[in-house]
Write a structure and sequence with these properties.
Layout (H helix, E strand, L loop, with lengths): L22 H25 L9 H4 L2 E2 H12 L2 H32 L12 H12 L1 H35 L1 H21 L4 E2 L1 H27 L20 E7 L4 H5 L4 H17 L3 E8 L7 H10 L6 H9 L5 H7 L3 E6 L16 E4 L17 H12 L7 E7 L34 H4 L3 H26 L4 E7 L5 H4 L6 E8 L2 H5 L7 E2 L9 E3 L3 H8 L2
Parallel strand pairs: 1-2, 3-7, 3-8, 4-11, 5-6, 5-7
Antiparallel strand pairs: 4-9, 4-10, 8-9
Length: about 550
């Protein structure tokens, strides 16, 4: 009798799972989406503008000649040569994307392109600003993310180019025809002068190469300029004779630029403070003369403006700054010291040792750690301006003091410009605890920076506070022996004043002794605290020589 024996069940342990219905189309869609995103990144790299104000639809409607050449190379080379070319092109495009993003940030903040040789030194102050504004954890997180992006971009760009090259070769006929049509269109647009004919990537790379070449040659040029000095060997007995016995206060008001007194968004409120101050000081017997200086920088890098004014040299990059500090240039500080003044420096934004201060020959150097301040920070600003000026009176102008020359940056008008303290009675300043409740007044930076109107209002209010503090100090403590020279260090960033703003900053000299202002009557400066249309404009590096000549 036959017995049917059923076969054993099949072993399906290692059998591949049948693809679920619809999985393959989904994968295909994802691949194409990734390809299109990669192509968009490549196009963005080739055509992206350097300034946020150019981020319009028309700013991206361009035919990049570099992209057409890249496609032609894809089609022309084969085998291992194509792999090498794609790898090199990927690294170059990755570098270009990073540079263009840096350029975007630098034009937004400093109104200039990123310098690949000299600007790495700015990472530390940038980190400090972010940390003060948003907190240490946010600063660390942003730094880590930026580092990962810098490492990943060249790799991702190379992989993207390989994918696009495979597509171009697979559809060679269509790719060749499309490239030819776009090349003709690019040529036509070029002849007609239309912006659609783009060579922005080549221009961007050329700019970086030019900056590197300039940096290499600039060091020797600056060194030669530093050796030309008509005052280096002048005896102290022949320097600054017209200021003997005076306390000279040199103060830089952070971000106080021409726009603060002429831009309709800020001028009405700022000029009201200056005009009221002029009237009040005149009633107390003070006079003032004012004009403009052209700063070497804008948006940031305040130390370079300070160095320019004090040294009489044009310091517009960190290489020049380092060269200056390593040399023996005769500065205004040195001139006052040689002539018998006590040299003071009060740097309220500093929270660590500052070795560079030795170059400026201070007898006393104070910062936020030893100025006696016990109050709160105001975002980036460790010490409010009014307290800084009160400390100047307490530390440098005590009864029976030697005549002083003191440099003070007023930093309450430093970005992010919020929160801002209020003026209090000078007898209430004390150790700064009076400001304890003010540090939380108004919008914090992460709120104020959400809209351009809020941040511009914050900027205006900060300038009003800084100038009000300085004017109030002169009203309260000024006497026949006080001479105040106050000026801006640079214009604020383009987010406040736009891309086309000048580099000019107001400068004012205030004195009660009429002989002080009589010495500069030939300068043609205007009366009062506020410079108006037609006020003289000098380069900032010209001030040292003119000042030493006038008061010799």
């Amino acid at each position: 009798m036959a017995v049917d024996i059923a076969p054993p069940p099949a072993d399906t342990t290692d059998a591949p799972e049948a693809p679920a219905p619809g999985r393959r189309p989904v994968r295909r869609v994802l691949v194409w989406v990734g390809t299109l995103l990669g192509a968009a990144v490549v196009l963005f790299t080739l055509v992206t503008p350097d300034r946020l104000t150019q981020y319009t639809f028309g700013g991206f409607v361009k035919i990049p000649i570099e992209g057409l050449l890249l496609v032609a190379i894809f089609l022309a080379v084969r085998g291992w040569m194509r792999t090498v070319v794609l790898s090199v092109a990927g690294v170059i495009l990755g570098f270009l994307l990073i540079i263009r993003l840096f350029n975007l940030g630098f034009y937004t903040a400093l109104s200039r392109p990123f310098d690949p040789v000299l600007d790495w030194v700015l990472l530390q102050p940038a980190y400090g600003l972010v940390s003060s504004s948003l907190g240490e954890p946010a600063a660390v997180l942003i730094t880590v993310i930026l580092g990962l992006v810098v490492l990943a971009v060249p790799v991702v760009m190379t992989l993207t180019l390989r994918r696009l090259a495979r597509l171009a070769v697979r559809h060679q006929t269509a790719t060749t025809r499309g490239t030819a049509v776009l090349a003709v269109a690019w040529a036509v647009c070029g002849v007609l002068g239309l912006q659609a004919a783009s060579d922005g990537a080549v221009t961007a790379l050329g700019t970086q190469i030019s900056l590197v070449r300039r940096d290499i040659n600039d060091g020797e040029k600056f060194g030669q300029q530093a050796q030309i000095d008509a005052f280096r060997d002048v005896p102290g007995s022949q320097l600054l004779t017209a200021l003997r016995g005076k306390d000279v206060l040199l103060t830089f008001v952070e971000s106080y630029g021409r726009d603060a007194v002429q831009n309709p968004q800020y001028a009405p409120q700022v000029n009201a403070v200056l005009d009221a101050g002029t009237t009040k000081l005149q009633s107390l017997g003070f006079g003032a003369r004012t004009a403009f200086l052209t700063s070497p920088i804008t948006g940031g890098g305040s130390w370079m403006a300070h160095e320019t004014l004090l040294s009489g040299l044009w310091v517009d990059n960190n290489q020049r700054s380092s060269s200056l500090l390593a040399g023996d240039r005769f500065t205004l500080n040195a001139a006052f010291r040689r002539s018998g003044w006590h040299i003071g420096g009060i740097m309220p934004a500093n929270d660590r040792d500052w070795p560079e201060g030795k170059f400026f020959q201070y007898h006393d150097l104070y910062d936020s750690r030893n100025i006696g301040y016990k109050g709160p920070k105001f975002s980036y600003v460790p010490v409010p301006d009014q307290f800084t000026l009160a400390a100047y009176q307490r530390l440098e102008r005590q009864p029976g003091h030697q005549p002083t020359f003191t440099e003070i940056p007023l930093v309450s008008s430093h970005a992010p410009w919020t929160p801002i303290p209020q003026l209090v009675g000078w007898d209430q300043v004390g150790d700064g605890t009076v400001y304890s409740t003010m540090s939380t007044d108004g919008d914090p930076p992460d709120v104020a920076w959400r809209t351009s109107d809020k941040i511009r209002t914050a900027y205006r209010n900060s300038i009003v506070y800084s100038l009000s503090s300085l004017i109030s100090y002169v009203e309260t403590y000024g006497d026949d022996n006080l001479v105040v020279v106050f000026l801006g260090d640079h214009q604020p960033s383009p987010i406040i004043v736009g891309d086309t703003a000048s580099h000019d900053v107001p400068i004012t000299i205030v004195a009660k002794d009429p002989r002080v202002l009589a010495k500069i009557s030939g300068w043609g400066w205007q009366d009062g605290l506020r410079p108006r249309d037609g006020a003289p404009v000098w380069r900032m590096d010209q001030f040292r020589d003119r000042f030493l000549t006038a008061y010799r």
